Amino acid sequence: MPDRRAPERPVLRAAGRARARRALTLVPVALVCAFLLLPLAVVALSSFNAGNNFRFPPSGLSLRWYAEVFGSAQWLDSLGYSLLLVLLVVPVVVVLGTLGGYAVGAGSFPGRRALGLLFLSPMAVPGVMVGLALLYQLQRTGMVGSAQGLWLAHLVVTFPFCVRVVAVSAAALDPALPRAARSLGASPLRTFLTVTVPLMRPGIVAGAFLGAVISLGEVAVSVLVAGAGEATVPVRIYSAVQVQLEPTVAAVSTLLLLVSVATIAVLDRTVHVSRFL
Q: Which residues does residue 191 pair with via DSSP β-bridges, in sequence order?
């Protein structure tokens, strides 16, 4: 009597090979995720160490280092200075990045691509070189070590990222919608503010988020441009690890990580910002 299951065996073998191939493709993804996430987990867990040294695994669990951060005038001053800098940088970079991103992503004028490359050029240059160039320029104007100089430096650093994500959003716009608004009598400015900008809102929000995160974590430019009196959180962390790697550094880093993760989670739920990051 013939075996009716014989035709099923090649099908089962093919399905098994397909599952094996899918599993193999997941291995590099898992390795990359582990390479990126495990150091963050080590730092976060080390911030709860009860001992006096930066240690993993922790010798015991304690919140003493978070209490030291919130009880330290230096750390609180740096946190306040960094947050104030972000609040001053983000609105300006959003306005400039929205205009530049719309011009690059939806414009049709000669030299548009060259302008886009000019806007994005700081992304292709190492941060140290950008910092040295800004140091040279700000020295000539006497703005090195001032809050205004650091604000301008952070604008230069964050602007290309905002332009990039807004340009992606602008390139996906349906040109028929602004034309319809113009045909109904709306002026170019009103069309841009009431039709184009709302359609680009996810990209604008993503640009604002990227600008805030990059400004909050910028080290190379801040070290070269900032003065000795006022230090941002990354500069304070950089100075602290030069002497001794203490758990307070891990506590501050964990707090910044939690703020970034919570912010991007809220933005992704509200405006689906992950499509532009």
A: none
| Residue bearing tokens 């190492």 | 126
pTM of the model: 0.76
* Residues in Cβ contact with 16 at an 8 Å cutoff, skipping those fewer than 6 apart: none
Which tens digit of pLDDT belongs to each residue from 190-218? 888 888 888 888 888 888 888 888 888 88
What are the pLDDT digits (tens) for 30-78? 788 777 778 778 777 877 877 677 667 777 777 877 888 788 788 888 8
* Distance separating alpha carbons of residues 37 and 82, to the nearest angstrom: 25
Two tokens, residue 53: 């040294």
Give the position of tokens 């005038």.
73
Of 211, 16, 191, 3, the closest CA to residue 94 belongs to 211
Q: For residues 150 and 226, is the Cβ–Cβ distance under 8 A?
A: yes
Q: What is the pLDDT averaged over residues 239-263?
A: 77
Task: Report the alpha-carbon angle 98-101-102, nearest 5.
Answer: 85
Question: How many angstroms separate the CA atoms of 54 and 51, rounded?
Answer: 8
